[in-house]
Amino acid sequence: MRMFSLLAALIAAAAAPDKKPARDPRLLRLIDREMQIANLLSGGKLAYDAGDFSSAAAKWEALLKIEGLPADVERAVKPLLAEARSRRGETPAAETKEEVPEKQEKQEPKPLTVSGTVSGGGAAGPGGAVVTLRRVDGWTPKPAPLNKPLLQKEKRFLPHVLAVPVGSSVNFRNEDALFHNVFSLSRAAKFDTGLRKAGEEAAIKFDKPGVVELLCNIHATMIGYLVVVDTPWYAVTDGSGAFQIKTVPPGEYEAAVWHENSSAPLKRKITVAEGSQLAFTLAADKRANPFPPDKYGKPRQQQLGY
Fold first, then answer.
1. I need a surface site. Which of 43, 262, 281, 285 has the fewest CB within 10 A?
2. 5 phi/psi in degrees, rounded to 5
3. Where are the domains of the chain?
4. Per-residue pLDDT reduced to its tens digit, 264-292
5. pTM given for the model
């Protein structure tokens, strides 16, 4: 090691015969310092090898407090000291400034509840709009999947609009005293539950975000929507168009509002802060399909009433 070579050279220089013996106090102090470093370094190693981790840690702690300690010695000793402390099963009451910088707790901003209203939506009104938020100044976490029921009752889908996180399972349950056959031909999910009598149910998992139009192969008038979202921050508006999204961190977001009567989602950049109130006005520019398809893609006439 470089330090021991230097120590040997200093001792040899001090002991070398000369007309005037080497009595330079600075040289003697340097020799004492190097001897102290060598003793603490080797003493800690001997104690460590003998299983006396407390002594090893004490010697290496004292070593690191020596002013002007060579950088290579410091780099070599620090991991050994950490290991000795770990093995002795305790943390020193006081640590040197160099080892543990003063920590400052970073407080995360408190999550907020985002409230707002949606208006418009044509004849259907503003109810059933799905509002989603995605961060533009940070990471949008993956939402936790859920298990949700979606009923067929009185020849309707209840709820008419259901929003679930991606990866969720939806249980389609027939609560009518007649047969239903729920299916979808949507890009986000194509499925067919088959013919189900009263009390029967079928669970479908939805792994792709998007809007899933729900139809019944027996009753052409039945239509509902499942909106699969890839964000934990979402809500479905009530009949008046009001909504709340809870536990939203403050920051910058893109808000998107989907509605069955709008041809495309309404999107807007927003800032979430204390007291944020959002307001959206929807277009009603989507033309309803007068001939909803059966599960084979063939058009049917709703006015026939089946």
1. 285
2. -65, -40
3. 2-88, 112-285
4. 999 999 999 998 899 999 999 999 888 99
5. 0.65
